Amino acid sequence: MGEELERRLEELRRLAAEIARAHGEEGAAAARGALEEGLREPPAARPPCPSGEAPRERARYAEIIGESPAILRVLALIDRVAEANIPVLIQGESGTGKELIARAIHENSLRRAGPFVTENCAAIPETLQESELFGYKRGAFTGADRDRKGLFQAADRGTLFLDEVGDMSPAMQKKLLRALQDGEIRPVGGTTSIHVDVRVLSASNRPLLDLIGRRLFREDLYFRLNGVTIELPPLRERAADIPQLCDSFLRRVAVELKVAAPVLGASARAALAAYSWPGNVRELENEMRRCLALLGGAARVIEEEHLSDEVRAAARE
Fold it and tell me: Which residues are within 8 A (CB) of 48 and not within 5 positions of it... i.e. 6 or more apart?
């Protein structure tokens, strides 16, 4: 047996053991299947990666912090859908990291060599939504002194992430549906359609089914966007991840400020665990930034007294 094959088999065994530990019986079965497949298939038989890039290991979602069962379920689902060229709808409260999940899907997909383009639909005025997504031709309106590509063309052969898609106007929802159905867009002021090859990922902090029931979102568009739904857990449902998230944020901010990273004391950990985090991971990151900015002198331990009033009040309840 060659050294390369032996190295590969050892790596497969290690990965199989990790999957089995993380995902129980279902994961164990998948791990055994992957190992058996690896034993049967010689390395040379693997197909080349798209666009001629050299084969490489799958990214390990290094930016997604946490080992709670809730976040491991999300990672397992990403693993299943990343390479499938289907739309994914990511739902979760504000601050749960929807764009981070979308980027992880892109970076582990067959489109990873292509562009990853993001847009917050809630931030685009209704009058500009069509030109922002589809572009425009010179002379289409006052001030259009040149042709401009829209987000769909910018994301061609890659991934387009539409955040807060539930805030899109009804008229724009209809035009987006047509673009997804036909695989073509028409710039504002244009007379011909342009073919685009784009995988669309979308996100909403409001359940789209609720918006459909209130006639605020098109049901046919929902089914176009919802090839698979990933529900992100709020931070209060993955409290076990808070210390690890805090350590990561503190290290990152310390590098920015060029200071030594502090650690969390026992009283701070208890207070952080007791708080409900309505702003989720984004609020936790801001809390750590605040603590590090206010931590005076040579103190290198964050205690309860350094936390915000809201967090400390929750610890006393």
Answer: 55
Instruction: Locate 7 and state its tokens.
Output: 């190295």
Determine contact, residues 179/185, Cβ cutoff 8 Å: yes
| Token pair in block for residue 33 | 């299947």
* Distance (Å, whole) CA 247 – CA 174: 45
| Residue-wise pLDDT tens digits, 278-299 | 999 999 999 999 999 888 656 6
| Neighbouring C-beta atoms of residue 272, cutoff 10 Å | 24
So what's the pLDDT on residue 3?
Answer: 56
pLDDT digits (tens, 9 = 90+) for 177-204: 999 999 999 999 988 999 999 999 999 9
Q: What pLDDT is recorded for position 299?
A: 67
CB atoms within 10 A of CB 296: 7
Maximum distance among all alpha carbons in the chain? 70
To 10 degrees, what angle do helices 309-316 and 266-274 make?
90
At 144 the three-state DSSP class reads: coil
Contacts of 260 (CB under 8 A, 6+ apart): 254, 300
Task: Look up the CATH number of domain 69-233.
Answer: 3.40.50.300
The β-bridge partners of 225 are: none
**18-51: per-residue pLDDT in tens?**
545 544 544 444 444 444 434 433 333 333 333 3
184-185 and 194-195 as β-strands: parallel, antiparallel, unpaired? Answer: antiparallel
**Ordered DSSP codes for 237-270:** G-GGGHHHHHHHHHHHHHHHHTS---EE-HHHHH
pTM, whole model, 2 decimals?
A: 0.78
- Phi-psi sector, 280: left (phi>0), alpha (psi -120 to 50), beta: left
pLDDT (0 to 100) of residue 137: 86
Q: Are strands 263-264 and 301-302 parallel, antiparallel or unpaired?
A: parallel
Q: How far apart are CA 20 and CA 2, in angstroms?
A: 27
Q: Which fold has domain 237-316?
A: Helicase, Ruva Protein; domain 3 (1.10.8)
